[in-house]
Amino acid sequence: MRPRRNRQSAAIRSMATETHLSVQHLVFPLFVFDGANLRSEIKSLPGIFRFSPDNLLREIEECMKLGLTNFVVFPAVADALKDQTATYSYAAENFYLHTARAIKERFPECCLISDVAMDPYSSDGHDGLVRNGEIVNDETLPILAKMAVAQAQAGFDMLGPSDMMDGRVGYIRQALDEQGFTKTGILSYTAKYASAFYGPFRDALDSAPKSGDKKTYQMNPANKREALLEADLDAAEGADMLMVKPALHYLDVIHLLKENYSQPIAAYHVSGECAMLRAACNNGWLDFERAMPETLLSIRRAGADVILTYFAKEFAQRFPSGI
Ligand code: PBG
Fold first, then answer.
1. Exposed (0-12), middle (13-18) or buried (19+): which is 245, by Cβ within 10 Å?
2. pTM exceeds 0.70 for this model
3. How many A from CA of 205 to the centre of ligand 1?
4. What is the per-residue pLDDT across 79-136, written as a single tens digit (0 to 9) for each?
5. Ligand 1 midpoint to CA 46 (Å)
6. Of 137, 140, 133, 267, whose CA–CA distance to 213 is shortest?
7. Ligand 1 nearest atom to the CA of residue 198, by list position
8. In the chain, what is the greatest distance between 2 CA atoms, to the nearest angstrom?
9. Residue 207 has pLDDT above 90, yes or no
10. Which domains does the chain have, with CATH numbers?
């Protein structure tokens, strides 16, 4: 046996390729803030911007032309609008909800995904309600449900609960169904770890916790079997897709969920993971043109059907017909 025979030409290598990655598998995370004709680069994630709604529509238009159709949008909310119960998250005047409506009116064929969590709107900077220094679970759920229904009303195709409260998928599913939003999907952040790699994201949204950390709700990076428990619950509660986050440092968890569940598996290649690669490339230490596709391919090879990555647009520009 000579394994090199299958590597001897581009044609043979191509035939023997086990894993493929195309723009259809990618979701592009986008940051939106209120205003007009604004665009500001995230310092800790060069090449990625926060957009005012008008410019966000332009960005989405460019992506759609490249065949990139899937977006997850996060709001950067002014401090003055934040409070302890995240009331702005479902307020009628919320610019995030208005932006979603405008996107779906203009690009009905895109898949628009939301973020369901209190942190962008919380004066405490936590994903759940803080009471006497504790992040309380059950009192958070009705707030998440109100947020979810408002997002479904605004036209989001899928909602992304990213808060890691217990029981939130079932609670949100029931609230959506009761309001008639039976077609709105749930992309659940199933195994979301208390990771150091969310730094640039928190810079982008100014959403870092004001006190403490997220370890009482996000998962311990040491744990893998616990991801199965979270996935059992999310699947039973009606999640349409199961997500692992971060991606690169948790390829084993992605693989584990892929082997054990029939739902599509998503992986979030998070801000810090993208920033590391970008920094090395900008320093001339790695070649972005090769390191970026190899990185995304590794996440897909581990078992991700869907990848959320800040490199989605650059992948689409370079590999219109996939790799
Ligand atoms: C919070 C949320 C976070 C991310 C997505 N949703 C950060 C956090 O948990 O503090 C991180 C994404 C990234 O780093 O790219 N609801």
1. buried
2. yes
3. 9
4. 999 999 999 999 999 999 999 999 999 999 999 999 999 999 999 999 999 999 999 9
5. 17
6. 133
7. 14
8. 68
9. no
10. 19-318 (3.20.20.70)
